[in-house]
Amino acid sequence: MAFIDGTIVNVALPAIQRALSADAAQAQWVIEAYALFLAALLLVGGALGDRYGRRRVFMIGTALFCAASAGCAASTSVDALIAARAVQGIGAALLVPGSLALVSAAFPEAERGRAIGTWSGFSGITAAVGPVLGGFLVDHFSWTWAFLLNVPLGALLLAICLLKVPESRGDTAAHARVDLPGAVLATVGLAGVVFAFIEAPRRGWASAEVITALAAGIVGLVLFVVVEARRAQPMLPLRLFRVRDFSGTNLLTLLLYAALGGGLFFFPLDLIQVQGYSATAAGAALLPIIAIMFVLSRWAGKLVDVYGARLPLVVGPVIAAAGFALFAWPSVGGSYAMTFLPAVCVLGLGMAVTVAPLTTTVMNSVGAELAGVASGVNNAVSRAAGLLAIAVFGIVMAQGFDARLSQRLAEQPLAPTLRAAVEDQRQKLAGIELPADTQSDQAAAARTAIAESFVAGFRRVMLLCAGLALLSAIAAWRLIGTQGEALRFSRLRSPP
What we know:
The chain has about 500 residues and is mainly alpha-helical. The chain contains 20 helices and no strands. Mean pLDDT is about 85; it is low at about 485-495.
């Protein structure tokens, strides 16, 4: 459920935007409301499971997730949908951390590796199936089924948990304290910053709401760091960042997953609203990434053993940067094979080279006793990166779109009423709807202007993604593997 929901909504977003008359900022909030609470509360969800019972918290999260999914499907306004998505994110924050912990606790050590492998395999399959399934439901039924799908799955899951899943707790559960101050400050900090960046294009940077939100966000994040540094049991142990490999891998994660989350938010919009793809075809467009990562996963897992961590974590993001740059090449029209497929394949290769070594380096950087904490922190960083990137990239997209649209409207002899209709809907980007009585030649000219304007903004976004991927490679080169290599070289130069 969680992996499907992470990918299915992006494909359904154009249909949601059209059905609920949402502008671009509101469409962003449909994604961000879910991502915000999941990113901010993910570590707290794991701590709650360790203390109060992983099965119990897992089931509470599942029930909340499914109830919120039904609320999403029943929404008749975009504001109601955004509110339901926020509750869904809270449920996911309770649900996601417990899944792997329950699997690990339920199997003896001899069988645990195979069980975790099965878990990983299903995660990959659902990540691949999610967009295609979502597209099929949107094309043949309604966008509401992208959310209703969770209800029967959740009911089955709760029944299995009651009948088959044993309860378990962390080893230090009795003495563990849940870091509620940290959770509140992280939520306030992220929410303030995200609100400012999403709403600034619509309200203006000088508006009182944007300034207040940005100030509250910055203060919240600063206080979060102060509180975490002083707490005996923080949700984010800052001492881990003293380890260069750990800080380097998380900086790489922040930059690369910002590029991935922000860039791929706009890709289905381009395919559906500009290129004319069906929702199903748009969902299938990213399947080569999943296929390449699946085929190369075993090979990529051995790269750290053969070459060390640094080389694959530099080469992989550089290849990914080339993939992002290729996304900026296509214009409007053309076959998938000649436009986006090369970019998708190159990006998939870059991520395949990166992901397994990244995970291995994170887990190895702090020792076995803190591997679970390290994994949770890295997961939270990747989700926070996507959350912030979608907000910031929205400004980049809007600026590119507005500049190009103003130029194209000045060049086109459009009727005053049509021009006014387009101008009034700038906030919808490629989701602009033309008046029903527009003449065919005027409609064609307006649609061309809108499509070309979206492509102009999309190119800016993808080039920014390429730059972030290159910065992640530089971070890996400067920070990862330097301590271990220095020690190795000193031993080699020491006399026997």
